[in-house]
Design goal:
about 425 residues, alpha/beta, D-Maltodextrin-Binding Protein, domain 2, seven-stranded mixed sheet, four-stranded mixed sheet, 15 strands, about 50% helix, globular
Length: about 425
């Protein structure tokens, strides 16, 4: 064997050995994994999440998700996991001021400030950028904008009865007798406390107006000055309870939404994510069902931002998963597919809006309109006050003989007592 041949053979053996070592190393290294905790359990929500999953898997990642029953349980569970030092790599979150508190505590991983080389400030819509950044850091990864004050209407019922879509709660109540007489339920609703709260917020918005409504959930701020507006709001709420059916006692929010699609109910008030329950039935927005801001909203949008919080983890394969999730979630194609199924609107520029249904396209135009006022869904930021509201609304819905004045008084007293300094023992 010549010297040249020996050198070539040595080179080949080294190359093969390195390849084998590389293969062994790769076999030992766990696959890039997106570990996600969320509370998306309904068919429309799962279909939207699957668009994220598909994007992860197409890029070679492993998608592992853990669904939780409700937002409240997810939130408390995540806080507990952070406390014991075992956070998930990523979790679904509704944007509130807590994200900045968690970031300052050092438990949140700030996402990159560029996506595919483009500055995040140029990628995200202006309002969204402001809501998810702190001192030039991307604290949360936004996914979609949900309107929390949305009404879904069965188009056939309103055409049959020649009724205009109601724009105030008084108009809803005025139309109720003719809708009931025709054999339909005027408003599909359940007795779930959080759903009652969403509906009541739209009544508050109508009675109080945008400026005062923005203040009603501020922490360390008494609601006593709005006693009269709260009383009027409870009066409308009790009138709505009077036209509800008995089925609401065992009905969930998604079942209520599908009653609109089944032509059993004329209207359902919920976040626009409820629309996904109708599109999942094969119904077409703008044709089979109609959408608008809920009665009483005027030009004000109560919005929430679905987002992922990426938490500080040590495992390299989970860190790579966080980077992959960032890449996928903000991809314009994934944004279009995800929001089309979720019922929300995109959080970034450059998304093909033609993939969205007629309702979402109209919502996007409302969002960017200079005539629109927006206020973030405030109940998330003040969970204690929210619990007082939900307790009062549940009593109003389930018990008889309670007056609006009594309900307002009990709510104010509960809230006031929570703000009193505790006596030291």
């Amino acid at each position: 064997m010549t010297t040249s041949m020996r050198k070539n053979l040595k080179t080949v053996l080294i190359t093969v050995s390195l390849g084998l070592l590389s293969s062994v190393a790769m076999a030992d290294e766990p696959q890039t994994e997106v570990e996600l905790t969320h509370w998306w359990n309904q068919p429309g929500e799962v279909a939207a999440l699957n668009e994220i999953k598909k994007g992860v898997e197409q890029r070679g990642g492993r998608f592992v998700d853990t669904p939780i029953v409700t937002w409240d349980k997810l939130r408390s569970g995540i806080i507990n996991r952070i406390t014991v030092g075992y956070p998930p790599a990523a979790t679904h979150w509704l944007i509130d001021d807590d994200i900045f508190d968690l970031y300052k505590m050092g438990v949140v991983y700030a996402a990159p400030m560029k996506h595919n080389g483009q500055p995040i400030k140029e990628v995200l819509l202006d309002k969204i950028y402001d809501d998810v950044t702190e001192s030039g850091k991307l604290v949360a990864l936004p996914l979609g904008i949900h309107f929390q004050n949305t009404a879904l209407f069965n188009a056939a019922i309103y055409r049959e009865l020649k009724l205009p879509l109601p724009t105030t709660w008084k108009q809803v109540l005025a139309q109720a007798p003719s809708i009931t007489e025709a054999g339909y339920l005027p408003v599909a609703i359940s007795n779930e406390a959080w759903q009652l709260h969403l509906v009541f917020n739209t009544i508050l918005l109508e009675v109080m107006g945008h400026s005062d409504y923005e203040k009603i959930y501020l922490k360390n701020h008494s609601i006593e000055p709005w006693r009269e507006q709260l009383t009027r709001s409870f009066e409308l709420f009790l009138q709505l309870r009077a036209i509800a059916d008995e089925g609401q006692k065992t009905r969930s929010w998604d079942m209520a939404a599908r009653m609109v699609g089944d032509q059993k109910a004329a209207m359902h008030v919920m976040g626009d994510f409820a629309k996904a329950e109708l599109t999942k039935q094969g119904l077409k927005a703008g044709d089979d069902f109609l959408c608008s801001l809920s009665p009483g909203s005027g030009h004000t949008i109560i919005y929430a931002i679905d987002a992922f919080l990426m938490l500080n983890v040590k495992e390299p394969y989970l860190k790579r998963g966080q980077d992959l999730l960032f890449e996928v979630a903000l991809d314009p194609t994934v944004q279009a597919a995800y929001n089309a199924k979720k019922g929300s609107i995109p959080i970034r520029h450059g998304v093909d809006l033609s993939q969205l249904d007629a309702c979402a396209q109209a919502s996007y135009q409302q969002w960017i309109s200079p005539d629109t006022q927006v206020t973030r869904f405030s109940g998330v930021a003040n969970p204690l006050r929210t619990s007082f509201f939900q307790a009062a609304l549940s009593r109003a819905w389930k018990e008889t003989g309670l007056s609006a004045e009594q309900l307002a008084d009990e709510l104010i007293k509960s809230d006031e007592s929570s703000m009193q300094p505790r006596a030291r023992k």
